[in-house]
Records
---
Amino acid sequence: MTALSRRQVVLASGAVLITGPALARSPGAPASPANRWGLLIDTRKCAADCTVCVSACKAEMGLSGHDRPLTDAQYIRKIEVRDPVGGKLHSLPVMCQHCAKPPCVDVCPTGASMKRADGIVLVDRHICIGCRYCMMACPYKARSFAHEEQTGQQPHLPRGKGTVESCTLCVHRVDEGRLPACVEACAAKAKGAMLFGDLNDPASEIARRVASEATTRIRADLGLDPGVRYQGI
């Protein structure tokens, strides 16, 4: 885990509490700007020694390491932030924040980095040239570069050497009306610290909690409007 000060990664408030149920989305329906998919993560329920979300992501996406932690693909990672006042450590998962104004998309010279109409940020490996401008632009260090030939790939996630990749919010599952693998695993095996849903739907649990409870967005000072919110930090 990476130990950072709370002030280094947190800079604004918003709203949330967390648990996990299903999506109000018709399987196979095209991405629509009427939706904005997002995550809310309650760090008070996230144990420092729990990595079920990370394990579920690796299994779902077919990610295999090469014993190089600094360069192996990681779509989600656990970090710790310290409260500068009380000194308390908070454990939280960090992944692509699926920003409304993603800098990775702005700097991509080929259009490989893109944002769907429903707010999910993706990389098209077919037109990614591996320049890694997006990796430099991302303030969350959420993207990885595939240095080696990829083996054991999943049909829903073709990967290619020399391209950039990151969390997709399990878009293949979302398009089928299912939850991301990390959220499902957290609900089943941990304390249900993660909630996924439509931020644009005022009737959804995630939108109701964002509207009524305090949350935090990492580096909110940048004005990127992340789709991932945190509670308890």
Note: The chain has one domain: 2-231.
---
Amino acid sequence: MKEPTLGMIELKSVARGIFVTDAIAKKAQVKILEAHAVQPGKYVILICGEVADVEESLKVGIEIGSDLVINQLFLPYIHRSIIPALKGASEKSKQVKSVGILESFSMVSCVAAADMALKNTPVELLEMRLAKDLGGKAYFIISGELPDVQDSIKVSSDYVRKEGMLTAVEVIPNPHPELIEKGLYW
């Protein structure tokens, strides 16, 4: 798999979410990255694989999820940093010049916005969190040169704002070293 495709379904039922996850896994050759309950009583499924396989599995998942599907995402050729970040494997940057943080009410919007931010300018994804211990919200943190961070945050926040899901956005030029050492990473 050269450039993976990401698929995501957010449901408002845990029971249906588990049922949909089983159907997705049986439909095509996809890898389940995450499938679990999140606050407040929702269920999220993240899969990756080849474009056609992810598309086919998502179609079945959305059909079975029916009116319990809150949101969905089909993102072919996702930026190479997203999937490791979703698995909690983001690398700690040795030199952080500027930081951009985007927080969203929607996990789906957050992932799509992070992909946009990373593809827009040469920034680095430091962290991405989806829903766990966040009351169902999600956020990502990028770093890079200040103009690049500002441009990427603008593009991604415009998208999330248009979706009506923007919680907050911040850009920190030249963050304090203790913030980087103790406060930025979980």
Note: The beta strands are 5-11, 30-38, 42-49, 69-75, 98-104, 124-130, 138-144, 166-173.
---
Amino acid sequence: MVQVVIVGAGIAGLCSAISLRRAGHQVEVYESSWMKNEVGAAINVPPNAARFLMAWGLDPVEWSFVRSRRMTLLDPFSLQFKMAITEEETARRVGGAELWYAHRVDLHTALRNMATRPDGPGTPVVMHLGMRVVGYDASTPSVTLKDGQQVRADLVIGADGLHSTASQEVLGYSNRPVAPIEANCCYRFLIPAETLQQDAETRFWNDDCQGWARLLPHNDSKRRLVAYTCRNDTIHNFVGIFYDDNVHADMREDWQANIAVSDVLDRFSDYNPRLLKVIAKAKEAKKWPLLYRPPIPIWYRSRLGLVGDAAHPMLPHLGQGGAQGLEDGLVMGIVMHGASSPQDIEERLAVYDKLRRNRASVVQILSNVGMDQAKQVAQQLLPYLDSDKVPSDPLQVMRFTYGYNAVHDATQAMKEYDAAFELPQDFFQSEVVGVPSAD
């Protein structure tokens, strides 16, 4: 049994904790917040993540996830239908599993429950809340808390997010942000469906809204609005993406920065008046800069490994940031099953790096533009992907992102590392859904 310290109880950190618990290790998570007032907007749980979360026993209905039925492009000025991006069967056809929309708090709570519940395989994860980590030592490995206490472990995982201290320890430098190719700013806000239903001028937005994602882009002005439902279709999640001349690469992202709803209305003032009346129902909105960070050259040093935003911060254009962090966590547990000596742990981190870094780097680069503009970044993808596999259109991007089975690839890599490798029988609660063959 390996003693593991994970820094950060976000989505990637908790998924790592679940996977390492199921792999037979003792896991402790150090989180700087008290997790008493969790907030957040909605998040995609696409097939590449859903396939193993469901196999672990996560019930999307129990946690109020919404199954995607369709994704359509609408004209932002007339609200007229322009084209279908996905239909109800698209995610299953491409990825083998469903695409789900979840409130971030619901997903986070589900993961925390899976990590800490007293029943189930492995030893329940121990959570240390209100404990800020201020330093790492990869060679020990250990972390230093704000009060000066040093905590040692056999393996330390940095899941400390966008402004990661762990990544600086791994790299020896800070991965500084640069201006993105397209939009550089984002609004997020939520509107209860009931609020819209109470007004005759806004209830139209609820019509047939179940599992419907609506994209309203105006590429000439680098603006787009994205809307879909979460929490059993009772909440509409809105994302407004745009270019702001006042945003610079040296700004710090703050997901909790409030902005007046009137500013959102001003930014999209020429969009359809009926839609503006819907937006006006929001009680509050958040704004933060979208800053791009290029892929980093390595994800581990000695016995310190990186997961999630600490390894690959992503822009929201593909809706894959959370899913890639979930893949990281899953793979970390698989490669560490059976780990013993310090040398063995470090060698397995090298396997993890090889499995995850190229794939996540491709998604990171594609997320700088979105699935409909993949050709813009084709050259940037070549260090991480063979030229004949570089996606160039939305369907190819979906095949690359949705149509991936991290369980299969991680298990095969570990069999190459150790021919006797086998996952515990109770690592999964049910069969992992595979990926359909591309026709």
Note: The CA atoms of residues 244 and 253 lie 14 Å apart.
